[in-house]
């Protein structure tokens, strides 16, 4: 069993959390200007990083709040957790990753 450090409640059992996908995916400045392919890229395309990855999690059966985390995708180790709205520095940070 793994403990996930909720930034609001502290370490809790992993089965209390829901995964929310990649963190820090910026909403388009002008979504009406996007064609269907660009809109689909925004909605569905995410990095598939091996290593440190910025993710969004929710403490579903605890405080119910979303937070951002940096987790290593092969070891599952959490390196950093922050309340939503504060930037995380990882390889998957937009503009810093190999796929951006
Ligand atoms: Zn919590």
TrEMBL record:
<dbReference type="InterPro" id="IPR038561">
    <property type="entry name" value="SoxD_sf"/>
</dbReference>
<dbReference type="GO" id="GO:0046653">
    <property type="term" value="P:tetrahydrofolate metabolic process"/>
</dbReference>
<dbReference type="InterPro" id="IPR006279">
    <property type="entry name" value="SoxD"/>
</dbReference>
<dbReference type="GO" id="GO:0008115">
    <property type="term" value="F:sarcosine oxidase activity"/>
</dbReference>
<keyword id="KW-0560">Oxidoreductase</keyword>
<protein>
    <submittedName>
        <fullName>Sarcosine oxidase subunit delta</fullName>
        <ecNumber>1.5.3.1</ecNumber>
    </submittedName>
</protein>
<dbReference type="Pfam" id="PF04267">
    <property type="entry name" value="SoxD"/>
</dbReference>
């Amino acid at each position: 069993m793994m403990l996930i450090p909720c930034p609001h409640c502290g370490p809790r059992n992993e089965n209390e959390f829901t995964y929310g996908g990649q963190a820090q995916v910026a909403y388009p400045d002008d979504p009406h200007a996007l064609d269907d392919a660009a809109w689909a890229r925004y909605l569905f395309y995410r990095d598939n990083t091996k290593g440190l990855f910025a993710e969004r999690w929710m403490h579903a059966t605890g405080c119910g709040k979303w937070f951002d985390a940096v987790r290593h995708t092969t070891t599952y180790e959490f390196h950093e957790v922050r309340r939503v709205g504060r930037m995380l520095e990882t390889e998957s940070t937009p503009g810093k990753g190999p796929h951006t």
